[in-house]
Amino acid sequence: REVKVEVKEIVFPAREEKMQKYEKEIPTREILEKIVADVLRDMKFDVATNVKLEGRGGAKIEVDVWGVKQVAGAQFYVYVSCKNWKEKVGSQVVHEEHGRIWQLIQMPHLRVLVVREMTEQARREALVDGFIVIELGEKASAENAGEIYEVVYSHLRELFMGMAPPELRNLAEEAKSISDKLREMAERLSRIASTS
Prior knowledge:
This protein is α/β, with parallel strands linked by helices.
């Protein structure tokens, strides 16, 4: 009697679709914004990219990625600035982003800077100014879009899970442990079936 067991790799949401989508993209400065927007959409945010939001005094403020999610009867806003540059992001950029946020009429609850790399001084200033900093280590491109997606997704997921009640975090850890055990059992069954 033949027992067939298939072990599938656990992947991030719609990773294969995302990879195919980005492979078709022409590498531009917007690819990082598209990746970050997809991460937020997969986390059930409504998302706009390169949106001009109302600023104080009537000015329009352009935002790379703006996410909105209904949470406990209130709107939760996320501001993301994407810097897909080959050079390190310096303090001047942090100051500019901080100023842009303070000009917005609708203040974001979460401020995120997604960059290839920052100077140490800029990182310190960004953290003091209340930014979450995600350093990718490389520029986003069509070739590495899947990996960049996973870095951003993992970072934001860890952030949101860290704010979750302990019972929910414990349940998530228990589910992961069970998943790992099931994968191990499936591999053992497969080995047993192949020797029979």
